[in-house]
Amino acid sequence: MGNLSKVLLGVIGSGAGIATAAGYADEGVGRSQSYWSRAFPIYLRYRYVQFLHRDLGLIDTADADARYEALHDKESEKAKALCLEMRGFYLKNAQMMASREDFLPRQYIKWMKETEDQAPTPFEEGDAERIIEEQLGKKIDEIFSFFDPIPTGVASIGQVHRAILPDGTEVAVKIQHNEAEHLFRGDIRTMKNFCAWFMPQHVPAFDEIEKQFLTEFNYIEEAKNLDLIRNQIMPKWGDKVAIPKPYTELCSRKVLTMEYLHGVKLVNGIKDNFKKIADKMGTTLEELEEEQRRKLNSGELQLRSIENETRASNKIKMFLRCKDYVLNLFRLLANTTTLPYLLTGSHLQMEWSHIPINMGEVMGILMGVHGDQLLEHGCLNGDPHPGNILLLNDGRLGLIDFGQVKKLEPDEKSAVAQIICQIVDKDEDGLLETFKAIGAKTRYGKKDICYKTACFWFDRDTEDVLTVDGKLNNIAEFLDAVEAADPVEQLPSLIIMPGRMLILLRGLGLAFGMRICTSTMLEPQARQLLNEHPFVLPTGSS
Fold it and tell me: What is the DSSP secondary-structure string of 508-542?
């Protein structure tokens, strides 16, 4: 695992430190102390190995990696239990991190993926029906002709149930559990308090996240977001994606009723797809995944671009279909004779190969849709993690959960477009001026650090970006390195949600074996926007 493994030091250690700071807050004392007492020992065990390896040099890299691997096996289940017990913002972050297989060890990624739709419910029997009745002011059987008490999915702040309206319309009902907002706000306040003391450069990020959670916990606002983005996206992308229609008359602060989309979570659909491939190869899904992981780690298999993945998938589809037509033609001709019947007692049956999902095409659609949200409409979903994407029965992608929607003004869209084009052009001087113009401020104003930071948020996290002062870093170490090289004094909220959206999409691509440079993909659209609405530096900004 090497440096990749050591990322856990930052993840767990930060949580322990945050919880310590939160011990001085009001109602969060008991919650933060519970977290600290269980997370800090995990942190110490990882820190001990790092101390022996990096600080003292008493063990070599191979020994350190073996010790880290043993810790992952042992501690990941403890971290899982803690996360599921604490829920709140910790569970939300686990869901977000589930798509970044390059960021955390597989033992942690495995259970984090489960949180995307298999988190344990905090609801007791009858809670869902009671909340609906309290929120909508009617008995459950007056609202629905059928309500399934078993949730179809459980998320960080609530759960979703299938129901049928009196007119026969099938709907999904999203219900927020009563403690969700309280837990989240306490967790974010805890983190902000810690950052204010020890990492003030991150406070603006938490301010922006907290601001976006105002709609996350108000389902009336989320219904408005659904309606808005649905009307913007569906006219162009309706044959590729589906966004559920909200039934606003059946929505409240804690209840969201919307169109029911028939399908499965994208990740589950892909797993089913690869299981069929594994069965055909005479192996298991787990063995196939492990072989894929081994080839990627060894360099035997390279990450592809979206275009190359799409072409490769189309070639496989063409080959399989040609093979099927040839073999089925042979079967058809054989059936005109008595030979098959004499040998088997029946005619030969036509057979068709399973066609793998074209993941390049899937990622191309997702990038296209989210690119339009960002640069055309200026209204984007900042939380496109895999659990919020469905593979529908009709072949389209279903996009759900629009609680964290960021709206950009025309000048803000142009600023984002300018950043994207300057990244592609490798215009470090211009990029530094753009960042200054939108309110970013660092202690020394180093253009190379500004460029690497912009690339990380808006384009890629490849070796050329993660290398600072000649040292290749993992992502956690990179963030520390750029902060040490040029400390952030002011971070504009403008870049946080667009950057988060692009980072999540890149992570999704990596999970499917693709390396995505998001700015390169969005460049044509960004240049078109700048032709129509140029970004103008304020007078005297340079």
Answer: HHHHTTB---HHHHHHHHHHHHHHHS---PPTT--
Model pTM score: 0.83
Query: Given this model, what pLDDT does residue 491 score?
Result: 82
| Collapsed DSSP state (helix, strand, coil) of residue 471 | strand
Tell me the three state secondary structure of residue 175: strand
* Distance (Å, whole) CA 311 – CA 169: 40
265 - beta bridge partners? 390
**Could you tell me which residues come within 8 angstroms of residue 221 by beta carbon, excluding any fewer than 6 positions away?**
214, 215
Phi, psi of 336 (to 5 degrees): -80, -10
Whole-number pLDDT of residue 276: 83
Q: Report the chain's mean pLDDT, rounded to a whole number.
A: 84
Token pair listed for 58? 């008493």
Distance separating alpha carbons of residues 201 and 474, to the nearest angstrom: 20
Q: Output the CA–CA distances (angstroms, integers) from residue 83 to 77, 86, 117, 352, 404, in the order listed.
A: 10, 5, 15, 45, 22
Structure tokens at 511: 């999970």
Q: Which of 458, 322, 455 is nearest to 466 (CA)?
A: 455
Residues 374, 416: contact at Cβ < 8 Å? Answer: yes
Tokens (6 digits) for 202? 């991150």
**Torsion sign across C-alpha atoms 231, 504, 98, 357:** positive
Asked if 469 and 481 count as a contact pair (C-beta separation under 8 A), the reply is yes
State whether residue 301 is helix, strand or coil.
Answer: coil
Rounded to 10 degrees, what is the CA torsion of 407, 413, 416, 418? Answer: 180
- Region class of 139: left (phi > 0), else alpha (psi between -120 and 50), else beta: beta
Rounded Cα distance between 504 and 510, Å, is 10
Q: Residue 400 CB: number of other CB atoms within 10 A?
A: 20
How is the chain split among helix, strand and coil, in percent rounded to 5? 60, 10, 30
Token pair, residue 304, equals 């592809």
